[in-house]
Amino acid sequence: MSELLRVEDCSKVFTIGGGLSRQHLVAVNKANVVLPADKPMIYTLAGESGSGKSTLARMILGVHTPTSGTITYKGETVHRPRNRSEQLAFMSQIQTVFQNPFETFNPLKRVENYLFETARHFRNAAKRADQIECIEEALNIVGLSFRDVERKYPNEFSGGQLQRVSIARALITKPKLLLADEPVSMVDASLSMSIVNLFKKLRDDAGVSVVYITHDLATAYYVSDEVAIMLRGNIVESGPVEEVLGRPRHYYTKLLIESVPVPDPDRKWKEDIVLSKREEKEYAMTGCKFAGRCPRAEEVCFLVDPELRRIGNAHVRCHFAEE
Amino acid sequence: MNAIEIRNLKSYYVVGTVKEVKEVQAVDDVTLGIRKDEIFGIAGESGCGKTTLIKTLTGLITAPLTVRGGDVTYNFQSGPVNMLSIDSDRYRRKVRGAKISYVPQGSMSVLNPVRRIERSFDDFIMAHRDLSRSECHEMAATHLSHLGLSPSILRAYPHQLSGGMQQRVTIALATILEPEVVLADEPSTALDVVMQRSVIQLLKRIKRDQQNTFIMITHDLAIHANFCDRVAIMYAGHIVEVAPVRSIFKANKHPYTQFLIGSLPRIGDKGERTSAPGAPPSLLNPPKGCRFHPRCPKAMDVCRAKRPRLVTVDDDHQVACFLHSEESYDE
Questions:
Q1: Rounded to a whole number, what is the distance in Å from the CA of B179 to chain A's nearest CA?
Q2: Which residue has the higher pLDDT, A235 or B192?
Q3: What torsion, rounded to 10 degrees, do the Cα atoms B198, B202, B207, B209 define?
Q4: Is A240 exposed, middle or buried (0-12, 13-18, 19+ CB in 10 A)?
Q5: How many CA atoms lie within 13 A of B66 on its CB side?
Q6: Which residue among A254, B21, B27, B43 is least packed, with the fewest CB closer than 10 Å?
Q7: Quick check: is B109 in a domain?
Q8: Is B275 within 8 Å of chain A by CB?
């Protein structure tokens, strides 16, 4: 078995409204993602808000069922009925970290309760001493110790610390895959660096693959091995990060990279950008979803949905992308 | 003459019971002069007192926030106003909105979810100007189209707009009366890169048209590099460095600033990045002397004993660090 995770032609269609006003919204359209089993890696899903990143992540977690296509984890399909022990075994393999650590934890509950619960359910640790041992091990990986969190409530932590506890909680089950949904967008620059450095450490030392969801391309470039750029449900460009972000071929990727503010006062944004006037309508467009904003768009872009083509080491979904 | 003059400002959160009163020194002894027509940025980690400073500047002082000293003077075209000594809340409200405008953090939530956008504009304009509802609508529509936004959004409800669009609408709302000073608190945080850029684009346009003085707070230094003229770095309630934006990025002097700039990732550079060791101190019981000394790799004995004074070291470049000057506050 050489694949940890395989997402194949996976789509999710949401139905909005009922009766005459029923509309279909394609949140994810034929996504393909493959993570190898033998080599842990950090895979980034990047794109604007509303591009379907989180929906794809939820399908991998098994929360949403794909409308079409399949997701397999270690050769076994994710979406199938399971009994309790199978479900726990599956959940212990894939864990998740959320955007805002202050919303992850109930403010009226001690943080340690979450850690003990996870240890009890997933590690079969019945004795408190065993539970503490599991917790201590996970907290050590993120640079904390049990004494730092003992008897504390979420409001007694700083945002960065709490996010680390949240990651440690996920690590208690010894997962093979960690899904991190915008884990750094709420914390400031120096803390976000310490969190993404932690992901690197997890990949290198603990052998955990990470699916890192973000709109911050600068940290994505810094940590990830592979990246997929999403636009309105479509993966428009994917491949090794140096290739996709270093030599972008899709015009949307180019726009995204150009919009990342450079921390250098000599390199300010020059031109103004065109924004989509009708955001919700971009989902319903036929052809390329970016055509309305694309500088290179021709008639064919509005009519024909471009195929995913392989150029160099990357896959690009554009009619005019060139080497 | 400076547009805003801040002198020895101390804003504390006073919490606890009568027996045991605790003070959180969120803004401690801040002195700053903000010049007319400039874009002044304030940067620093979360919890360093940026938002408290802005709140005090706008006079939004409600318990437990208490001003323990210092003053804030605005030099408006009509004459100076000391924001902290105004005792009439009504007059303070007149100043706020018309002359000073505040774009708070997460400002999308100022829009009432069950009323159309135009009603929010009406409320705002009618509180300051004696206009009829239709005149208000006309004014709002011209302002929006002037800013490159479609006037049709006035008829929409907030939930029909995306987060970035809501943010741009609130900025339009805050600037419709052409205020002399605009204070923006993290206006582009939590938006994606394209939306972030559109928000900055909008702010630049307003600045160009209305010639206001801007104070911009964000922890994202890349935004400061793009937008600001001068930047102040704040750490644990103190201002540690103030300089033109180019000097902050190219010739910074304070070790904390160096950590902040050094930890920024850039596309095309995979080199290892580290952040400052340790965590920011608790403002309830800040360390003695320079508040950065427990995390500073260059800390000396004097740093532990005395607090460095913010002094001008270069042309227009102020820094509070014993590596650059020996002056200290007497404590």
A1: 24
A2: A235
A3: 140
A4: middle
A5: 11
A6: B21
A7: no
A8: yes
3-state secondary structure of A53: helix
CATH number of the domain to which B244 belongs: 3.40.50.300
Report the distance separating Cα B51 and Cα B65, nearest Å. 12
Q: Record the pTM.
A: 0.83
Q: Residue A224: what pLDDT?
A: 92
What is the end-to-end Cα distance of chain A in Å, rounded?
33
Which of A49, A188, A263 comes nearest B222 by C-beta? A263
Among chain B residues, CA nearest to A272: B201
Q: CA of B195 to nearest chain A CA: how many angstroms apart? A: 8
The token pair at B9 is: 């400002």
What is the side-by-side strand order in the sheet with B100-103?
B100-103, B181-185, B213-217, B39-43, B230-235, B238-244, B317-319, B311-314
CB-count burial class (<10 Å; 0-12, 13-18, 19+) for B292: buried
Question: What is the domain range of residue B32?
Answer: 1-99+185-191+217-264+275-331
Whether residue B234 is contained in a domain is answered as yes
Cβ distance of B45 and A190 shorter than 8 Å: yes
Core vs surface per residue B226-261: b (16+ CB within 10 A) or e: bbbbbbbbbbbbbbbbbbbbebbbeebbbbbbebbb
For residue B275, list chain A residues with Cβ-Cβ distance below 8 A: 189-191, 193-194, 197
Residue B179 CA to residue B57 CA, distance in Å, equals: 15
| pLDDT per position as a tens digit, A141-191 | 888 888 888 888 988 887 778 888 999 999 999 999 999 988 887 677 777
Tell me the domains of chain A and their CATH numbers.
Answer: 3-317 (3.40.50.300)
Closest to A304 (Cα-Cα) out of A321, A323, A285, A322: A285
Question: What is the structure's pLDDT at B220?
Answer: 85
E strand or H helix at A282: helix A279-284
Q: How confident is the model over B68-78, as pLDDT tens digits?
A: 888 899 998 88
- The answer to whether residue B67 sits within a structural domain is yes
Confidence of residue A213 (pLDDT cuts 50, 70, 90): very high
* Structural domains counted in chain B: 1
Over residues B240-250, mean pLDDT: 93
Is residue B238 a part of any domain in this protein?
yes
Q: E-strand spans in A162-291?
A: 177-181, 209-214, 226-231, 234-240
Q: Rounded to whole angstroms, how far apart are CA atoms A241 and A224?
A: 7
**If contacts are CB pairs under 8 Å, which of residues 236-255 in chain B contact chain A?**
245-246, 249-250
Q: Does B203 touch chain A (CB under 8 A)?
A: no
* CB proximity B311 to A under 8 Å: no
Distance between B89 CA and the closest CA of chain A, angstroms: 33
Q: How far is the alpha carbon of A200 from chain B, nearest alpha carbon, in Å?
A: 11
Question: What's the mean pLDDT in B261-274?
Answer: 82
At A274 the pLDDT is 67
Name residue, tokens 């080497």: A323
User: pLDDT value at position A279?
Assistant: 55
Amino acid letter for position A34: V
A315 backbone dihedrals φ, ψ, rounded to 5°:
-110, 130
